């Protein structure tokens, strides 16, 4: 297990110290196989201290994942263009920000979408996790209202968008988007294909 420096613990800030230490360990070790006891040791607190805020390791991991969802949503909202002339112009920077978040935070991203951890605590239906999906729903809803996107069940459309971007993110994390196989700009090409199926063709003006 790779070592990480002990973090100084300041009185009254125990929860934050535990979370920040666990996030550092997740990033440094690229997995979440650590124990609460090890987190406490590296945070410079007693072995029992984490239990004051987290009943077990699953609860701590769930909070780390929620922080990931918060940060991912923030990244998507920051990337969202203020104005765009087409769905492709709107979705492209959002998708790029999504993939960049995953590749910059691979262990955290895997934890966020871990089926095992997510089922254990109902993580994926938490409002903080759903807030990321809402970004896609709002984009598609606005497009449907403006008459630019086909009138189809919006959650089905959102599932198609999310599946593509999430899949591309996982492939990028694993280093599988090699140009010899998928071309030099696979995300842009995939988004163009997806948008063709979502948008209503507009007459030339």
Taken as a percent bin, the fraction of beta residues is under 5%
Number of strands: 0
Shape verdict = elongated
CATH topology-level fold name of the largest domain: Tetracycline Repressor, domain 2
Q: Kindly state the mean pLDDT as a whole number?
A: 90
Instruction: Please tell me how large the radius of gyration is.
Output: 20 Å
Biggest sheet: strands, sense, closure?
none
Terminal residue distance: 62 Å
Put simply, the count of helices is: 10
- In CATH, what is the class of the largest domain? Mainly Alpha
Number of domains in the coordinates?
Answer: 2
Q: Helicity level, as a percent range?
A: 55-70%
SSE sequence, one letter per element: HHHHHHHHHH
Low-confidence stretches: 1-7
CATH architecture of the largest domain: Orthogonal Bundle
The helix-and-strand class reads mainly alpha
CATH superfamily of the largest domain: Tetracycline Repressor, domain 2
Lay out the secondary structure.
Blueprint: H1 14-29, H2 36-43, H3 57-79, H4 87-104, H5 106-112, H6 115-121, H7 127-145, H8 154-173, H9 179-182, H10 186-198
Helix pairs in contact: 1-2, 3-4, 3-5, 3-6, 3-7, 4-5, 4-8, 4-10, 7-8, 8-10
